[in-house]
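retry 2 of 3: previous attempt timed out while embedding zinc ion. Reduced batch size to 1 and resubmitted. Inputs unchanged:
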Amino acid sequence: MSYYNNRKEERPEVETSIWACTNDDCNGWMRENFTFEKKPVCPLCQSELKKDKKTLPQIN
Ligand SMILES: [Zn+2]
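retry 2 succeeded.
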């Protein structure tokens, strides 16, 4: 049963536009693609978000 345990699913990582929380104490962020508001707020602390980039596994 453990044949595939050492195998990691390889997904290409791409630089992705995200919204990052401006609150230093918060790690909240969202993918820009999943955001429909012009100026979204953090889902965790409702702080302002700023545009940023993050290297993330590609999603289709
Ligand atoms: Zn936040």
